[in-house]
Every structure is written in C-alpha cells, then in structure tokens.
UniProtKB/TrEMBL annotation:
One of its GO terms (cellular component) is small ribosomal subunit. This is rRNA methyltransferase. Keywords: Iron, Iron-sulfur, Metal-binding, Methyltransferase, Transferase, Transit peptide. GO terms for molecular function: iron-sulfur cluster binding; metal ion binding; methyltransferase activity; structural constituent of ribosome. It holds the Pfam family Rsm22. GO terms for biological process: methylation; translation. Signal peptide: none annotated. PANTHER family: 37S RIBOSOMAL PROTEIN S22, METHYLTRANSFERASE-LIKE PROTEIN 17, MITOCHONDRIAL. InterPro entries: Mt_RNA_Methyltransferase (IPR052571), Ribosomal_Rsm22-like (IPR015324), SAM-dependent_MTases_sf (IPR029063).
Amino acid sequence: MVDATAYAAYRMPATHAAVSAVLGQLGQDLRPQSLLDVGGGSGAATWAALEAFPSLASVTVLDQVPEALKLGERMLPRATWQQWRLGEPLSTVDMVLVSYVLGELTDDDQHTLVDQAGAAARQLAVFVEPGTPAGYRRILDARDRLIAAGWTVAAPCPHQLACGMTGKDWCHFSARVNRSALHRRLKGAELGYEDEKFSYVAVTKQDNTTPGRVVRHPAFRKGLVTLQVCAPDTRVGPTLVSKREGPVYKAARDAEWGDTWPPAAR
Ligand SMILES: C[S@@+](CC[C@H](N)C(=O)[O-])C[C@H]1O[C@@H](n2cnc3c(N)ncnc32)[C@H](O)[C@@H]1O
C-alpha cells in the first residue's frame, strides 16, 4: 500500500492533468456512458474522464495491483475496481482509456493491449504516454494499429496519414500541474507547479474535423505570433500571424500548445 500511496501522491496529479488536457481536445459531441480504465492504477485517468464526460454512468478500473485498486476505491467508491492482468478479456464499453501503461509492457504486450482496447471500445479509445521520444514512438505504433483496425484518429493529428514530424522532433504536449505542499516536499521542489509532457492518440468512429494542431509553445514578438502547426497535408511548420490580421491575430495570441488551428469560425 505504501508504493500505491507514494505513486498517488507523486504521479497521479500529473497523469490526471495530462489525461484532462487530452480529453479537453476532443469534440463536444461524444457522450460515452461506460468506461474501462485499463491499467488504471488508483484512477487518475478515470477522474479526468468523469470530469470531461458527465454522461459516464458506468466506470470500471482494471489493474494488476490490488493495493492501487484499494486506494482508488477509497477515493472513488462509485467506480468498480477490479483486478485484471493483461491477456484476460475486456468487456465492451463506449470508451477505453490506457494511460501511462504501454511503457511498462514489452512490444508484443503493447500490441496485445492496443488490439484488445481497440476491440473493446465502441466510440472512443485514448492512449496517453510520457512525452518523450520513446513515448511518442509507442503512440505512433498504437496509432498505426488502430487505423489498420478501422478507427479514425480524432486527435492530435489532423489527418490519418504517416506522421509528418521528422528528424529529432517528436509530437508531444504539455499540461501544467499545480503542486500541493506535500507534492513539493516529495519532489524536493521549489516551484509551485510543474509541466507534465505527454504524447497521445485518441480514436473515434467519427470523421476527423481537426483543421490543424499547434505542436509547440507559440512564440510572441511585437505584433507577430508564430505558431508551429501540424496541417492536414501532414506538413509541420511555422504559421506567422501579424497584428494586421485583426481577429485572427487575437486568436493566435490566445492559442496554446495543443490547441487546434485555425480556430473554428464564430
Ligand atoms: C504508470 S501506472 C499508470 C496508472 C494510471 N493509468 C495513471 O495514468 O496514473 C501503470 C499501471 O499499469 C499497470 N500495469 C502494468 N502492467 C500491467 C499488466 N500486465 N496487467 C495489468 N496492469 C498492468 C500497473 O499496475 C500500473 O498501475
């Protein structure tokens, strides 16, 4: 139980923030009623899903570690907490979440889990990994398998083609996490926040309507915003927006890393 509690205090706020940021990028018209949080541990991703989707009525967290499940159950008794090991069957639900799990598995086991999760989800499947080159590669691999299985990538990509990020770049995003006093003590940290970097893919059965995606922190100069944008034609490059462009400039000033671009017309 000590390990599970330490994980909860040390990592849950960050994985929760990452999954919240991911779910915040999905269309407003998804209304899943049932959720499986696979490798859900003490339920960080489940909390994010419940906040993003008030439609969720049935929520199940699966994990191999009973202590993590017990701790999660104390914090969220309304969910079902069930011991489960990779390879055991998954029931069919509207939405499957796999948050920070692939990195703990061998390549073969990652494939098994991606295929299983994809087969278990009716509307939406979401995979989140640390925002490192290795985490990104695992997400790309999952993305390929999901597309081959008939899913449509809803986010972050504005297309279903091969990723256009090349060279040393990798697709990742950032979520700010406020640190509690305990969190700061555990990490020996001074700052009142940390930035959790993550990579992700979310797939649905709907058409992808993402116009483009901001894939870096915007850069601001006097009267000019530079957005690094991943476009539907797979190109990743800078978009410059100057003050002369009026409302578009205002939108560019408000745009954040991870947002869609250009913004929807109002
Ligand atoms: C880094 S934690 C992530 C927990 C949670 N999803 C989150 O985002 O905070 C990885 C979880 O995957 C679970 N896990 C790893 N391998 C597993 C397996 N073979 N079967 C079931 N669960 C597994 C671990 O027990 C652990 O709770």
